[in-house]
What we know:
It is a single chain. The protein is of the alpha+beta class. β12 (about 175-185) and β13 form a beta hairpin. The chain has helices spanning about 20-30, 35-40, 70-75, 110-115, 145-155, 235-240, 255-260, and strands spanning about 10, 20, 45-50, 50-55, 60, 65, 85, 90-95, 125-130, 135-145, 160-170, 175-185, 190-195, 205-215, 220-230, 270-275, 290-295, 295-300. It folds into 3 domains: about 10-75, Structural Genomics Hypothetical 15.5 Kd Protein In mrcA-pckA Intergenic Region, Chain A; about 85-160 and about 275-300, Pseudouridine synthase; about 165-270, 2-Layer Sandwich (Pseudouridine synthase). The chain is built from 7 helices and 18 strands. Strands 7, 8, 9, 10, 11, 12, 13, 14, 15, 16, 17 and 18 form a 12-stranded mixed β-sheet that branches. Strands 1-6-3-4 form a 4-stranded antiparallel β-sheet. Strands 2-5 form a two-stranded antiparallel ribbon.
Amino acid sequence: MLYTMAMKELVVNDKYNGKKLNSLLLDTFDGLSLNVLYKALRKKDIRVNDVRVNENVIVYTGDHIKVYISDEQLEKNTHFEIDIIYEDEHICIVNKPAGIEVVGENSLTTLLEKHYKSETNLISYIKPCHRLDRNTTGLVLFAKDEEALNILLDKFKKHEIEKHYKAKVVGIPTKKQATLTAYLFKDAKKSLVYISDAPKKGYEKIVTSYQVMEENKKENTSILDITLHTGKTHQIRAHLSHIGHPILGDGKYGNNEINKKFGLKTQQLTSYSLTFHFKSESGILSYLNGKKVENGTVLISKF
């Protein structure tokens, strides 16, 4: 593989004064992994004030950093065609790939903003109505104006938009369908959530339903159709792991030995269906009631 090697030069600002070099570099280059960073240090491909360094040194305001790492290893791969599977004047629904956040720098939202600004009819407003984890794929609903956003946020709050997910999990559940109730605690510092079967202080109630769609006894895996009745951080991933059926490829809540066996590095979880079940006033979006978007196909039949 041919890599583009160009020296990148940085000047340390006050934010990183007295901090480790890796903190500055990982924040600056969104595609840089710890693996690549420490390999570069071993090879002395990073210089601080023109001195080659081979360890994770402390840097100070005004220090000059030179990085000799390929562009491909520094930049997040966001060069993909945006897959807009449904669009009208008020909303659009995008099929998100793995490896990109919904919001933030170099996110799906910023890519959509660039996409619409390059169109003849400029759209200056594009906001997501919900989020998916970085490595979860599938349907994300965006609003093209503030009125539509407020309506859709209200609909999600009132559970009038139904989301379905598919997940490939370890094992085959004994119950072929079930509605699970538990309690979730979010540890923001560790970017982890914890599940309890009983109520605890600081824990919030979660409800998750699943139905077994396919079974593979030889692999000891199954594919589940999942419905979220509450939408908490990492809910599906943590809840399925809690009942002994972690999602394949999930490095945070899954089984890494099994993930390696299958050669999977990202969770096998996708948001594949959105259905609009409006029961309350929906204003300019009333035309969406009864519509379903599934696997890129819009079904207009009523329920």
